[in-house]
Specification:
The complex is a heterodimer of chains A (about 160) and B (about 425).
Chain A (H helix, E strand, L loop, with lengths): L4 H10 L12 H12 L4 H11 L3 H10 L11 E6 L2 H4 L3 H12 L5 E2 L5 E6 L11 E3 L2 E3 L4 H9 L3
Parallel strand pairs in A: 1-3
Antiparallel strand pairs in A: 1-4, 2-3, 4-5
Helix pairs in contact in A: 2-3, 3-4
Chain B lengths: L26 H6 L4 H6 L4 H10 L12 H6 L10 E6 L9 H7 L1 H15 L3 E6 L4 H16 L15 E6 L9 H8 L23 E5 H13 L1 H7 L7 E8 L5 E6 L2 E2 H8 L9 E5 L8 E2 L6 E2 L1 H6 L8 E6 L4 H15 L5 H18 L5 H14 L7 H15 L1 H9 L13
Classes of the chains: A alpha+beta (about 160), B alpha/beta (about 425).
């Protein structure tokens, strides 16, 4: 499996961060950065990282299964993540999520057939004082109203 | 870098004083505003003197548990063969908490200097800043800061010409509340599932890669340079006895001016909410407040007239926690709050300990049953009893964190649970307990 030169450089640097013989420490970062490039944690990706870090594919798989941001299926071009945890709930997060479901015609962890948007109701994303908060891919948006959400999504169609 | 909320003139800005300053995250700005003076000062201090100064400050861990920082550092064994490490907890996943990201965004060098001082105190050579995966923008930001620090000689070999060597890296998480717990974080750093370790041994003796490790929150490290620069006593005097200094409080919920504010420990909570937070929104009355993240027992409005420090909170039966304060108005449905909190813990339980895995699952089912109008009176008792039976029976505090708010909400707002149940015509039947 081949990666972009930028990702290979990042991997090479990452592997210098850990004590000798403990390069497995790079597994979670490598999965995160590779997933961004590949689009999902594919069986080929797991096999490749297992080989590079000298662990079994099963050891990689059990790590992938644990972390909620690692996903084996591709997401939409824009992954819409709406927080409904307490701080966001108190300021309209749940209504915002319902609005997004209707607007996008999909539910939790679903992707539109067109592949444009996917949706996820997420747990606290650490923007509680500026609630309700969402993330579009990695970008935070604070104090989001249904109107603001509509504008953001229409700009990404 | 823009501020997400305007500051308040009533704040005491010790660790947030560079917030809003132009290019506050750059090394030159930091150096021009007293940066690295504390680190240089520690070069003339012995490790024990550094630890004594931190002890004198009565700085306590800002991540949630509130353990005295100087004491924690003193547990690291001295003169051991092999490396000692520093791990910074920037997982910031406790619902209600959004302060560590600001400290890294606006003043990353303050945290780095605090890490270097800790490294001097315990003889550490390497460290990692573990940041939750959702904060990718912050990890990229820190990576560029670390690059600058290396290029300018403030990390790596012979730091600032002192002869001291230290390497620091970022480490991304990948979405797991549990990894904010110190031993689960260390597992994640080693490339594994974030499942907690049994303790002892504590990280001070066997932490990252089974080496002695100092593990503290971002805010804790960020507080260290000012302590060294101005003295432990100066810092301690900002707060109340045994509760030194200031802390970042993340105000959220039904207030007029939610935001992250730095205040001295011991500030009255109602004063904070009314004067800094602008009081309740829409002219409503307060019903309750979760004072320090969703793991903390809830306070009724009439219980909130207390000082915000670790000991006063403990006396009131709750915790200062991670500083995530969520205020709720009179219209808030406390049963739905209890269910939402439990949904979170059920989602985040790693499944390692049965009381937590099964407890959170069943508590969520029972609370959902009540909210859906299918609850029976005995469900209300069962929620409280089951939550109590989880306390202290798990490897890590996640089980307690799920149980504590639940117990307090049921105890303090029981009539609301009963009102839900009363709407169920079969509430007193023995036949409704299915699923």
């Amino acid at each position: 499996m081949t990666f972009s030169p930028e990702l290979e450089a990042r991997f090479a640097d990452l592997l210098t961060h850990y004590p000798p013989g403990r390069q497995r420490g790079a597994l979670v970062p490598m999965l995160m950065y590779a997933q961004d490039e590949v689009g999902a944690v594919t069986p080929e990706l797991m096999a490749e990282l297992a080989k590079r870090l000298d662990v079994s594919v099963l050891q990689v798989d059990e790590v992938v299964g644990y972390y909620s941001m690692l996903h084996k299926k591709p997401q939409g071009k824009t992954h819409v993540q709406i927080c409904t945890n307490v701080a966001c709930m108190l300021r309209g997060g749940a209504e915002l999520y319902d609005h997004a479901c209707k607007k996008l015609g999909i539910g939790h962890k679903q992707t539109q057939a067109s592949g444009v948007f996917s949706l996820e109701e997420v747990e606290c994303i650490g923007a509680c004082s500026w609630a309700p908060a969402i993330q579009l891919n990695y970008t935070f948006h604070h104090e989001v109203t249904t109107d603001k959400l509509d504008q953001l999504l229409e700009g990404l169609q | 870098m823009k501020l997400y909320n305007p500051p308040s003139p009533l704040e005491t800005k010790v660790i947030s004083k560079r917030f809003g300053v132009e290019n506050s995250w750059r090394l030159d700005t930091y150096l021009a505003t007293g940066g690295f003076e504390a680190f240089k000062k520690t070069m003339e201090m012995s490790p024990d003197q550094i630890i004594d100064e931190v002890k004198a400050s009565s700085l306590r861990g800002r991540g949630g548990a509130g353990f005295p920082t100087g004491l924690k550092w003193s547990f690291v064994p001295k003169n051991v063969e092999g490396p000692t490490y520093i791990v910074v907890n920037g997982d910031e996943s406790e619902p209600g908490t959004c302060k560590d990201r600001l400290l890294i965004e606006h003043d990353p060098y303050q945290m780095i200097e605090g890490i270097l001082i800790a490294a001097r105190a315990v003889g550490a050579s390497k460290g990692w800043v573990y940041i939750r995966g959702e904060y990718r923008y912050l990890i990229d930001h820190l990576d560029s800061v670390l690059k600058e620090a290396y290029q300018r000689g403030y990390l790596g070999k012979n730091i600032a010409g002192t002869g001291f060597d230290f390497d620091l890296y970022s480490q991304t998480g990948a979405g797991a509340y549990e990894c904010g717990e110190e031993s689960a974080l260390l597992e994640s750093l080693e490339g594994k599932r974030g499942v907690p370790r049994i303790r002892p041994p504590f990280p001070a003796v066997s932490g990252a890669f089974q080496r002695p490790t100092v593990l503290n929150n971002v805010e804790t490290f960020s507080s260290v340079p000012e302590i060294i620069k101005n003295g432990g006593k100066w810092y301690a005097d900002l707060g109340t006895p045994k509760n030194g200094g200031t802390r970042m409080v993340c105000l959220a919920g039904h207030v007029n001016k939610p935001g992250v504010y730095e205040v001295p420990l011991g500030m009255n909570m109602m004063y904070f909410i009314n004067e800094i937070g602008g009081g309740m929104w829409k002219g409503k009355k307060m019903k309750a407040t979760i004072p320090g993240g969703s793991s903390c027992p809830i306070l009724r409005a009439d219980e909130c007239d207390i000082p915000m420090d670790y000991d006063s909170m403990a006396k009131a039966g709750t915790m200062l926690g991670s500083g995530g304060m969520m205020v709720m108005d009179e219209d808030t449905d406390m049963v739905k709050i209890a269910l939402r909190i439990m949904r979170f813990y059920k989602h985040e339980s790693c499944g390692w300990c049965i009381p937590c895995r099964e407890g959170t699952t069943w508590l969520q089912k029972m609370l959902a049953r009540i909210v859906d109008g299918n609850g029976a009176m005995r469900d209300v008792d069962m929620v409280g009893d089951l939550a109590k039976s989880m306390l202290g029976r798990t490897f890590c505090p996640l089980g307690d964190a799920a149980a504590m708010p639940t117990i307090s909400i049921v105890e303090k707002f029981r009539p609301e649970f009963e009102a839900y149940v009363a709407r169920n015509p079969f509430a007193n039947s023995e036949l409704v307990q299915v699923g």
